[in-house]
Every structure is written in C-alpha cells, then in structure tokens.
Amino acid sequence: MDPQVQPEVYDLLILGSGAGAKLLAWTFAGQGQRVAVVERKYVGGACPNIACLPSKNVIHTAQIAHNVRRSEEFGVSIDNFRINMPAVRDRKRRMVQGLVDTHLALYKQSGAELIMASGRFVGPRVLEATLADGTKRLLTGKNIVIGTGTHAAIENIPGMAAAQPLTHVEALELDVVPEHLIILGAGYVGLEFAQAMRRFGSQVTVVDRNERVIHGEDEDTTEGLQSLLEDEGIKLVLNAKVKSVAGVSGQSVRVTLSQNGVERTLEGTHLLVAAGRVPNTKDIGLDLVGVELTERGYIKVNERLETSAPGVWAVGEVAGSPQFTHISEDDFRVVRDNLLGGNHVTTGRQVPFCLFTDPEFARIGMTEKEARSKGIAYRLFKVPMTHVLRARSLMETRGFLKCLVERDSDRILGFAAFGVGAGEIMACVQIAMLGRMPYTSLREAILAHPTIPEGLIALFSSAAS
Ligand SMILES: Cc1cc2nc3c(=O)[nH]c(=O)nc-3n(C[C@H](O)[C@H](O)[C@H](O)COP(=O)(O)OP(=O)(O)OC[C@H]3O[C@@H](n4cnc5c(N)ncnc54)[C@H](O)[C@@H]3O)c2cc1C
Ligand SMILES: NC(=O)c1ccc[n+]([C@@H]2O[C@H](COP(=O)([O-])OP(=O)(O)OC[C@H]3O[C@@H](n4cnc5c(N)ncnc54)[C@H](O)[C@@H]3O)[C@@H](O)[C@H]2O)c1
C-alpha cells in the first residue's frame, strides 16, 4: 500500500452486492450517508443473476415443457414439439437483464455508489478495489460490511477438475439439452436442476453420498421426493462415494463410485456439481482487518452479525447464515438496526424455505426428527393432498400437508407441505406462527374456496396422532 495515497472515506463501505448488502447500501445512502459497494461481477449478487431467480425462470419453462408433454391428459392435442434451449436461455437472460436494470436504477435513486471492481483488504479497514481496466482505488469506511457470499464446492476428487464440470452458473447458460446429465449432490440445487433438465428431455442420474435426498428432512418428505423424481425417470444413485471422474463435461464423462461397497461406473455427457458451497473468504486480506474465520472458513460473527474486528460486519452466506436470500435480507435488518444503535439479533428467527421441485416442498419450524431428538412431545396433523379440494380440482394431488403442534398446548411447532402451492400455504402457517395464533384459529378460519390454503381447514380438522 502506497503511504502517499489516502483512501477515499465513506460512512459505509460494502464488499459484495448480495441480498443483505445492497439493502444496507440503498437504505443508508437514502438517508444521506456516503455509501460505496464494491462488486466484482454480479449487480445485485447471486440471487438475480445466477441463483434463485434465473433457476426459477428455467424451472418454470421446464414445467411448461412437462405440461406440453402431458397435453393429451388435458384434452389438448399437440403432435410434435421440441425444446429450443437457446430460446429458453434467452428468456432467462431477458429476465436477468431486467433485474439488473432495476438494481442499477435503485443505486442511482438512493445515491449509493456501485463500484464494479474486485475488492481485497490491504490494511486495517482499507480496501483496494481493482477495476476491469486495472485501475485501483483505495477505500475506507467508518463501518464496513462484508457480504461476499459463497461459490459451488468442487471436491478434490481425481479427474474432477480436469472434467470441467458445470456448476449452477454454467448449467443456467446451457444452449443444448444434455443427452445424459450426471448430477453430483441430491440437495437443493441438485434436485431442482435434476427435474428441470429431465423435463427438457435429458437422461438424468443424481449421485449422493447420503442414503436419502435432502437427507436432513423427515422420511415421508424424502420418500415423497424420491418417488416423484423416479416416476419422472430420474435415476438416483444414493449412498455412493465418488472415487474418480474421467472425460470432459459437454463431451463424455465417466464417474466411478462405490455404492454399498460395490464399485460401479456411470457414463454421461455432462456433469453438474451441486455438492454444497464454499465461502468467498480466501485471498481478500481478512487477516489484515482482524476478521476471524470459523473452521469451515466462514466469517465468525456474533448474533448481532459483528465480526471480530470492531466496526466490521458480515451478512449473508459468508457470515454462515442459512443459505437463503430471505435470510440474507433479514441479516440486512439485523445490521441496519444495530448500526442505528439498536440490539437486533439473529437468534431464534424463523427460517422458512421452499424447494422448487414440482410439486414444491416447503417447511417452517420443526421437523418430526428434530422434535424427537429434542424430546419435545407433539401431536401430528397430517393429510394427503387429496384432502385439498383445490389440488383435486387441478388433479395435482401428489403429496401431503403436515403440522406438529405442541402436545400440551395448541402452539404450532412446525409445518411442512409437499404438494402443489406448498410455498404459498406454508406462508399462511408461518404468519399464524408469527402472530402466536393457536392452530385452532386456522381450523376455524373462513378461507376462500377452492384455494390451496383452504386445505389447512382439512388438515386441522383431521384426527391428530
Ligand atoms: C442455483 C441456486 C438456486 C438458489 N435458489 C434459491 C431460492 O430459490 N431461494 C432462496 O432463498 N435461496 C436460493 N439460493 C440461495 C441464494 O442464492 C443465496 O442464499 C443468496 O444469494 C445469498 O446471498 P449473499 O447475500 O450471501 O451473497 P451473494 O448474493 O452470493 O453475493 C455476494 C457477491 O459478492 C461478490 N464478491 C465476492 N467476492 C468479491 C470480491 N472479492 N470483490 C468484489 N465482489 C465480490 C460476488 O460477485 C457476489 O455478487 C439459491 C442458490 C443457488 C446456487
Ligand atoms: N429453493 C431454494 O431455496 C434453494 C435452491 C437452491 C439452493 N439453495 C441454497 O443453496 C444451498 C446450496 O445448495 P447445494 O445443493 O449446493 O447444497 P446442499 O448442501 O443442499 O446439498 C449438497 C448435497 O451434495 C452431497 N454431496 C456433497 N459432496 C458429495 C460427494 N463428494 N459425493 C456425493 N454427494 C455429495 C451432500 O450430501 C448433499 O446432499 C442450499 O443449502 C440452499 O440453502 C436454496
């Protein structure tokens, strides 16, 4: 660092422009503070560019393809159709561009400065931003927020790096339907892509080291998801340890694994790695700022999202927060309130989520597994989706609704839905939980007929076990 060059001073300096970070920028700049955000590539972070929103765009198109394939079932005759992947990709790109434009307008409107540059700390509280043309700027902030996110983990398996596997970033840019896509990881990314790509016409094989897909969930959920995927012709290779990879993704790949002690080789044309995330904390000079990391390389924060360096905060996935956009957005509220002198903590907050398979799986609060492991006594309400008249009217009756209610009170402990509209119906229960309403108030509510949330009346009128 050249001692002659004085860093430009901001009230708030932010590294990374993800969900929580950009909300902080717009909020404080809107209040007249001098704010800068340093972002190396994606205006608005991962969600609008390479993660949630583009993946849901492509998943929706795949659902249309699925419905076209099922057209006879609806009494609609379509003789021939083909998938035009460049057009699928263009539609997604148009959506992304629209979102980027909205973000740029919000930067302009709020007065926050967006610096498109790669950032790294070069001294205590001093950030060096390297622009695309090589120009460097030194910046400092009275408060600093780090929101650099994560990237896809690519394990050091022999042949893996040489195979140049796709991650979600490249998979969202495909202009061909892979003939046979092998997916490593049966978590959120793996399952959403597996179904979408199958619906575009790929053969799909999903490999996971666990015995079940999204293995943290209750067995009825994982069983339901597994049969959904298998019914659509997706092959699941579970309890598998990948030994080596050969070939190049996009041409041909061979994945050698051992499953239940037996070695086997899968052959495909493309390989997608969806095996978890790695925090973006390497080589950005965090040691120079005094920001400590956890054993897994995430930024160590307290429940106020303060790092070990005074005046330096962290938000989103890099801070080890649950890996969802709405949680990164809640991290914004926590840091905003604390910067304004409050005491807002992350402890005990709700973490709802929705897996965007079709049908969806959504959950808020406790699973049965968790209640049992904590020795919490509960009553279980559970009905198949056939009890939901809206689902009957659509003839989309796969799945179930279930709710855990505290045994000695009417308090809702957790709710899970696997079925059409699962994400929307979960939000209804979540709001009841926020308002500390007993489950009986949902049972007795007048809910419009026939809507998916009306199914809550059927759920809570059923006999609990
Ligand atoms: C395929 C996929 C689908 C998903 N779908 C959903 C979903 O449906 N719903 C949901 O809630 N969540 C979903 N997620 C998770 C969600 O995308 C993330 O939780 C969310 O984007 C996290 O945001 P963040 O604030 O941690 O940072 P990010 O959005 O990751 O932003 C970090 C930013 O920092 C930048 N950056 C990093 N290092 C530097 C540096 N040195 N200099 C400058 N800039 C830097 C990066 O370029 C990036 O733009 C999905 C994730 C994936 C991968
Ligand atoms: N709808 C949503 O909200 C949504 C969608 C996509 C992603 N996300 C978020 O992004 C995060 C990351 O998603 P992800 O799918 O990459 O991770 P994940 O943690 O959900 O799943 C990774 C899976 O890969 C498996 N795996 C890891 N290494 C392996 C190996 N060597 N061999 C075989 N299996 C292996 C793991 O056992 C796990 O099942 C999720 O946890 C989620 O929070 C959310």
Topology, please?
Blueprint: E1 8-15, H1 19-30, E2 35-39, H2 46-50, H3 52-69, H4 85-110, E3 113-123, E4 126-131, E5 136-146, E6 150-152, H5 168-171, E7 180-184, H6 188-200, E8 203-207, H7 219-231, E9 235-237, E10 240-248, E11 252-259, E12 262-268, E13 270-273, E14 277-279, H8 286-289, E15 312-314, H9 325-339, E16 353-355, E17 360-365, H10 368-373, E18 378-384, H11 389-394, E19 400-406, E20 412-419, H12 422-434, H13 439-443, H14 455-461
Parallel strand pairs: 1-2, 1-5, 2-3, 5-15, 7-8, 7-13, 8-9
Antiparallel strand pairs: 3-4, 4-5, 6-14, 10-11, 11-12, 16-17, 17-20, 18-19, 19-20
The protein binds flavin-adenine dinucleotide and nicotinamide-adenine-dinucleotide.
Enzyme class: oxidoreductase
EC number: 1.8.1.4
Disulfide bonds: 47-52
